[in-house]
Design brief:
Blueprint (H helix, E strand, L loop, with lengths): L1 H22 L4 E4 L6 E3 L6 E4 L4 E5 L7 E8 L4 E6 L8 E5 L6 E9 L2 E9 L1
Parallel strand pairs: 2-9
Antiparallel strand pairs: 1-2, 3-4, 4-7, 5-6, 5-8, 8-9
Length: 124
């Protein structure tokens, strides 16, 4: 009986340790002014661009966090797209077609419950 308890305790410790390691695997870079969230350092290849057709793709599987929503803002602050993506599968490839918004400078914000990943894009 004690052996089973020790095994169970060891498994719980490993799961808890893995959760802590995973949650600390991304770095908080700077505090964001919106909603107290942190901006996440994202040096991976989650964003792909088809600049010729003004389409950007976001690979959820490449991200180290689960997203809650995606928003696209013009440089003047106007929100042109906001979508809740929490219920989408983790292997989703999300497509943003900028042709509908026109030429200009945009910020793509990928929001998780703990932070924000931002990417600025220029559409011609």
């Amino acid at each position: 009986m004690q052996r089973k308890f020790t095994l169970l305790l060891s498994c719980l410790f490993l799961v808890f340790s893995a959760g802590i390691a995973q949650s600390s695997s991304f770095e908080a870079v700077t505090a964001s002014t919106s909603a107290g969230l942190l901006e996440l350092n994202n040096d991976n290849w989650a964003f792909y661009a088809d600049e010729e057709n003004s389409v950007y793709y976001i690979d959820f599987e490449s991200l180290s966090v689960n997203l809650s929503d995606i928003s696209v803002r013009r440089k003047d602050g106007e929100v042109v797209l906001k979508e809740d993506v929490f219920e989408l599968p983790v292997n989703t490839i999300y497509e943003i077609d900028f042709k509908q918004f026109g030429a200009g400078q945009y910020d793509i914000e990928l929001r998780s419950f703990t932070g924000i990943i931002r990417r600025s894009v220029s559409i011609r």
